[in-house]
Design goal:
By secondary structure, the chain is of the alpha/beta class. The chain contains four helices and six strands, in the order βαβαββαββα. It has a six-stranded mixed beta sheet, sandwiched between helices.
Length: 185
């Protein structure tokens, strides 16, 4: 696939700089986006260093700092900023994260994503929610455009009511699906 010639005009808010978020940030920078605002309150941990783009040498360092350094190395023209030790839910309303062209959330916590969804929907901001299954066999991408697409909360209601608009992708027999924290999805 081709990268848009105007990719330098895109400014992306990235919520989550873990295994999937670090990879997404790197790919976005390589694609030539003009700006990234990276938000994650966590440090790179030993148990996820093998999947994080920073690797074992980044253990104990704030995830957004590691990712921002890598992004700047691959694309020095990308305006990278980050917020560490702060949840996306605690960002000031004037933070440039909320003014991004789009927000990409790779947070593996349903409750945080629901709260992010509520805030972004109220602000009229498009959010792409991305999840990868631990085995790497599949990924899930959900776009929420306020006023156009169903929000995460609505999709949960559709699913609970058995509505066919909410698709469920069951795990394979030998597949374990879990979040970073090890809790099952």
């Amino acid at each position: 696939p081709r990268t848009s010639a105007d990719a330098h005009e895109f400014h992306i808010g990235l919520a989550g700089a873990g295994s999937l978020g670090s990879t997404c940030a790197d790919l976005l920078a390589k694609a030539g986006v003009g700006g990234l605002r990276i938000v994650d309150p966590d440090l790179v941990n030993v148990h996820n260093a093998v999947r994080h783009s920073g690797g074992i040498g980044a253990v104990g360092i704030p995830k957004p700092l590691v990712v921002a350094a890598e992004v700047s190395e691959h694309n020095p023209h990308c305006d990278v900023s980050f917020e560490n030790f702060t949840s996306v839910l605690n960002l000031d309303g004037a933070d440039r994260f909320w003014g991004a062209t789009a927000i990409l959330s790779t947070i593996a916590d349903d409750m945080v994503e629901l709260a992010l969804n509520r805030t972004a929907t109220a602000r009229g901001v498009t959010v792409y929610y991305l999840r990868a299954l631990r085995s790497g066999s599949a990924g899930r991408l959900l776009r929420v455009r306020p006023g156009l697409d169903a929000c995460l909360e609505c999709i949960a209601h559709y699913h609970a009511d058995g509505d066919r608009r909410a698709l469920t992708i069951p795990p394979q027999d030998n597949e374990v699906i879990a979040r970073e924290c090890g809790q099952p999805v």
